[in-house]
Amino acid sequence: MTAKENILKRLRAAQGASVEKPKPTFEPIRFEDRVAHFTEMVKAVGGDVVAMQGNLIDTLAAAGVDVTNLVSPLEELQDKALNPDAVADVGELGGLYTAVVSGRVGVAENGAVWVPVEGRRRAHIFACNHLVIVLDRGCVVDTMHDAMGRISLDGLAYGAFISGPSKTADIEQALVLGAHGAMKTTIILY
Amino acid sequence: MSCHAVKAKAFLKNEERALWHDKALYAVREKRDRQAYSLPEWESLREQASQIKERVLGNLADYLEEFERNATRNGIKVHWAESGEEMNAIVAQIIKEKGAKHLVKSKSMLAEECHLAPYLEERGVEVVESDLGERIVQLMECAPSHIVLPAIHIKREEVGELFEEKLSTEKGNSDPTYLTHEARKHLRKKFLNADISMTGVNFAIASEGVFAVCTNEGNADMGTAFTDTHIAIMGLEKIVPDMESLAVFTRLLARSATGQPITTYTALYRQPEEGKEIHLIIVDNGRTKSLADAEHRTMLKCMRCGACMNTCPVYRRTGGYSYSYFIPGPLGINLGMLRSPEAYGGNVSGCSLCYSCSGVCPAKVDLAEQIYKWRQQMAPLGVADSKKKMIVKAMNLMMRNPRLMNAGVAVAPYIPRFVYNNGINPWCASGREMPHFAKKSFRVLWNEGKIKR
Ligand code: SF4
After folding, report:
1. CATH class assigned to B3-10+294-381
2. What's the CA gap between B231 and B240, in Å, rounded?
């Protein structure tokens, strides 16, 4: 017998009677002003939120981004940014650039944004210095329950809920931003 | 003295550090409380998580098959391992097939459980821990002392000295921001140089064949993005039924672990990137045996948040190294007993039965009740402390016999103190005095009419 067969056999002998799946018994929290709460939470987790002013490139410049050093799969930035799928080795870019990606759902309760990777590669999202996520303010939901209902995994290789910049408190519980991934995270709401 | 008490003594020698440890962890517990109290549905969420896990445990074989089917359809290569040795061998085999030499890994308690890193190192593979805390303990050549905060027992000056030696950082600079950013540079090189990556799995979603990896640093995602082969390892209890359930667990995990509303990165892996591979190893290593133990199977509901450690007054004051199992605290006491009562029975006394752990566990694992049960099972298992057993027997005899009891209480104040206030008495650990016996017992005072109602 294979390891799998042995394990499944032992499990079937050990697991006992089948148990019903529980029904949700509560109403998740609702926020009066979702976008305001989302903004507050993003800031609480070390990120920033700005509103789109005119076009994307102007908004980026206004937010202090070096617009001459961008990596982005976004159509709008096609002639201003390197397309990550066209870069043979993102690691060689040196990691000082700003990555601009699109988010699909914002979660008010925790400041997370669902970022599905639709292109071939995703390294730029982590290896950048500054991560900018562009998000439709109409796509901000209250909680993770709503978010899970909104996202689709079909056809995706990978997606992540990202809440603020990379961080660690592994040295004496002192919070430090920029452990490995982005040192800064900015959400642009349109 | 139990082995826990002996080792705790060593930890408590450095009073200042012990105090810092206690406070730092309690601060994490308080952060957890603030998050919990900010959600009116917190208790319902815990209940929901607990019931979902009951459902999973009662239907685990079917869920694992469903998960494997979907993951395989997505292009993930699924392997099964009955033991830690089998898991290690599969990992080594994949590494060999790929001709890889440099493995960059994110934190996984399962890897610790199976001693994976030393196994691979013996076979000439460089294993780099990429979580900062794990990297610190790896460079220091010591073990993690907490499952979520591996380096919580180490002070910044020690990290400074370590980095000075290993990463050539500035002499005498122990600023956490400086040190973290130096580690970032050091590890960035390791990421770019790695040819294979490894992660644990926080949740495996049966209905989707997708698995979730949660980190704050982004180290898991960095590693998998830069390498062509990603090996993920999971204990077979990591299943959640569907995305709806995942919502429940992602709401609980980081709030309970570190008092954050969610981890910075909650990554869902569904398919390898074009031209790449994902291997996932489903590991038993004693879990089916635990599932068969009706008394203690509830331990399999654990999502490894560490909240039970942060709240535990014994863990906070004695540190992770006082426990003989590689996972400390209330969780480790229980998992150690499931692994081997003979080897790890000494940890069971490292609990004051305050039940604080049961009160915070997001999956409602009744950790303290479980420890209490183990204590009842110790004698039949033949692993109880023989000295304590003798004393309990003597007390039992006295308390069942009122005459003997009264006579004993009457003479007790006249017994010289050194007879019982000494190192042989297990209740009389250093720094703890046996109380003085009262000259007159409550019973005598009562009979003399000296007690007013
Ligand atoms: S037993 Fe509960 S509190 Fe302890 S680590 Fe597991 S889930 Fe967290």
Report:
1. mainly alpha
2. 20
Q: What is the pLDDT of residues B6-60, one digit of tens each?
A: 888 888 888 899 999 999 999 999 999 999 999 999 999 999 999 999 999 999 9
E-strand spans in B38-173?
77-81, 102-105, 126-129
State the amino acid at position A160 in one-letter form. A
B331 lines ligand 1 (CB under 6 A): yes
Q: DSSP 3-state assignment of A98?
A: strand
Q: Which pTM was predicted?
A: 0.91
Contacts of A170 in chain B (CB under 8 A): 131-133, 136, 149-151, 180
In chain B, where the domains are located: 3-10+294-381, 39-285, 393-447
The amino acid occupying position B20 is: W
Query: ∠ CA B352-B374-B423 to the nearest 5 degrees?
Result: 50
CATH number of B39-285: 3.40.50.10420
Alpha carbon B95 to chain centroid, angstroms: 28
Ligand 1 contacts CB of residue B333 (under 6 A) = no
- At A142-153, the pLDDT tens digits run 999 999 999 999
CA of B195 to the centre of ligand 1 (A): 34
- The confidence score (pLDDT) of residue B386 equals 77
Look up the ipTM and state it: 0.97
User: What are the angstrom distances between the C-alpha of A10 and each of A45, B387, B406?
Assistant: 44, 39, 55
* Helix, strand, coil shares, percent, chain B, to 5: 55, 10, 35
Contacts of A158 in chain B (CB under 8 A): 267-271, 273
Kindly identify which residue of chain A lies nearest to residue B290, measuring between CA atoms: A14
What chain A holds in terms of domains, given with CATH numbers, is 31-189 (3.40.50.10420)
Among A1, A5, A7, most B C-beta atoms within 10 A, so best to mutate, is A7
Higher per-residue confidence, B408 vs A72: A72
The pLDDT of residue B183: 96
Hey, is the C-beta of B231 within 8 angstroms of any chain A C-beta?
no
The B residues from 34 to 73 touching A (CB cutoff 8 Å) are 39-41, 44-45, 47-48, 51-52, 54-55, 57-61, 64-65
- State pLDDT tens for residues B149-169: 999 999 999 999 999 999 999
